[in-house]
Amino acid sequence: MLALIGLFFAALLAATLVPAQSETVLVGLILAGAHPLWGLLVVATAGNVLGALINWGLGRFLAHHAGARWFPFSPKALERARKAYARWGHWSLWGAWLPIVGDPLTFAAGLLREPLWRFLAVVTLAKGGRYLVLAWATVQLS
To answer: Nearest-CA neighbor of 97 among 15, 9, 7?
Structure first.
């Protein structure tokens, strides 16, 4: 049970600005073989989506604080995400799983008032798909 809790929080933190590696935790747990694969995928995806939801909430409800020293995104990263999101709209959320740009994209979605239902649907599929591909590769290569 502690392993699943650790995976959940690693995935949650990895979707925020806290440096964390959920992929290594997931691969380690798959290789250990102590938990069903589907359970690991559900836990990792849920944690990662919750982390993205935190970013969306920051964008949605704390946008007026952008530029403050404590604010989680630099003005440069925020502007990059805003431009990408303005250009591609909710389709850019398919890149929410990407390192470096994914977190600012989920923040920009909140900032630009992406509807929560669509945000959750796309982000869940994107992040779950990434973990599914990682799990498949791990099983194939082990």
So the answer is: 15
